[in-house]
Amino acid sequence: MTGGYTLIGRNASPYTRRVAVTLRLLDQPFEQIKLAPSRDAEAVRAYNPAGRVPVLLLPDGERLTDSGFIIDYLLETHDLWGRLLAPRGPRRRRALQRLALVLTAQEKAAYAVRASRQRPPGSEASPFETALRSQARTAFGLLDESLADLPAPEGEAELSQDAIAAAIATSFARAADPLLLEGLSLPRLEALTARLEAMPAFLAQPLEAP
Predict the structure, then answer these.
(1) Which CATH number is 12's domain given?
(2) Which helix (H) or strand (E) holds 55?
(3) Rounded to whole angstroms, how far apart are CA atoms 42 and 155?
(4) What radius of gyration, in Å, describes the C-alpha atoms of the chain?
(5) Which of 19, 46, 55, 87 is at a distance of 20 to 30 A from 74, taking alpha carbons?
């Protein structure tokens, strides 16, 4: 590899997609090798022995794994003024609290979808799957409430990591299982997601079918 970064993973993963969108917003050129652990296990393990994506290959050959760690590196390296995540103070704390809610909602949604796809067609959801779906819905509801004090971004220059992650998680949940959030009132999340998905960085890195 020469020049810029190489990102391993498909945008079906909200974790990979968040890294890809962040790279776009930071104006960092990168190549994306679209591998999925479920169908490209051996190829993924060649980049990460744990068999997980995303993986970011740095220009010097170093490999970073875990989306949170990758984004922390990118912000530390390319966002010195803290545009995408405030470096300190109340704004940073609120953003990190929202990010924690995003990760909970996203994780519970992903596990619920996986459990649903693994059960026989026509069978009822297990108590475990039902609990996961309930936890995901609760987390998305709390996330929507937490957006009350987040100004609606008018353009990419006003985006923050918590808003980016919230929109990506919502799009993922809707696409992975349209019934997961059915009937749940999420006015702030829906408005934020629609606004961000229409922005160039998101359009350049569209969600792939989960």
Answers:
(1) 3.40.30.10
(2) strand 55-57
(3) 40
(4) 17
(5) 46
Instruction: Give the CA diameter of the chain.
Output: 53
- 8 forms bridges with which residues in the sheet? 33, 55
Please identify which residue in the block is written with the tokens 């924690």: 100
Element (H, E) at 45: helix 41-47
Among 45, 79, 113, the domain boundary falls at 79
pTM over 0.85: yes
CA distances from 181 to 19, 27, 36, 62 (A): 24, 33, 25, 39
173 within 8 A of 139, measured Cβ to Cβ: no
Looking at 31, 48, 79, which one is the last position of a domain? Answer: 79
pLDDT digits (tens, 9 = 90+) for 182-205: 999 999 999 999 999 999 999 999
- Number of structural domains, the chain? 2
